[in-house]
Amino acid sequence: MGLPTWLQRQQSVTVRAATQRVNRSDLDRFFKSLGADGAVARDLDAEVDKELARVNALSTLTSPLAVSYMERLSRPIPSLTPEIGVLIVGRTYVAHMVVESDPNRFGAADVPVLATLPPLKKGRPPQDLLTRVVKVSRGRTFPPICALTPAAWEGLVRATTKRAHDAAAGELVSIEVVDGVARFAWVLRQVDLHYGLSPEVNS
């Protein structure tokens, strides 16, 4: 199972927590600096708030993948507590769902879906699915499957970081860590779309 590039060089040490909290004024300034992309990110973050209560859990396939990966990352990243991991993964997964519902509203011509996964075998996913998801979420392989512009993605990550900082009881997770986990969660949604699976939602 692979680790993100930013973590591979630090497997034997603890990843440092953020030294400064992202507050509302910081976030507003950042949104403003992004121009129209900042407005998209603000709108998306607000819509995620509305939709989040409808989603109880990821699918039966992606829920255990998320738990496994968050448990592994929590060892070198103490600031990534289970609660913060759930917050980042949940908000980003739902953000993908929101963009799917109205791509044009969020500056997307369409919503690319990961098409490089092998078919299910006897109803089961490939054994290396988690490794595949992590690999796709890294570096140059991610932007082509992200419906958002790079700047709008940065805005979403910064907004999610603020949410994580607001919820933190101890150390603050860094923006870089939030970005890595958010990319992973975005790809998890695409895994569910690829295999025709749905999250657990309120009726």
Main features:
single chain; mainly alpha; two-stranded antiparallel ribbon
> Number of helical runs?
8
Number of strands: 2
Unreliable runs: 1-12
Percent in helix: 40-55%
Radius of gyration, in Å, reads 16 Å
Can you describe what's shown?
- With 203 residues, the protein is an all-alpha fold.
- It has one domain (20-201).
- It contains eight helices and two strands.
- It has a two-stranded antiparallel ribbon with strand order 1-2.
- Helix 4 packs across helix 5 (82-101).
Short summary:
The chain has 203 residues and is mostly helical. The termini are far apart.
Secondary-structure blueprint of this entry?
Layout lengths: L4 H4 L15 H10 L2 H17 L2 E3 L4 H13 L7 H20 L27 H8 L13 H18 L7 H20 L5 E2 L2
Helix pairs in contact: 2-3, 2-7, 3-5, 3-7, 4-5, 4-8, 5-7, 5-8, 7-8
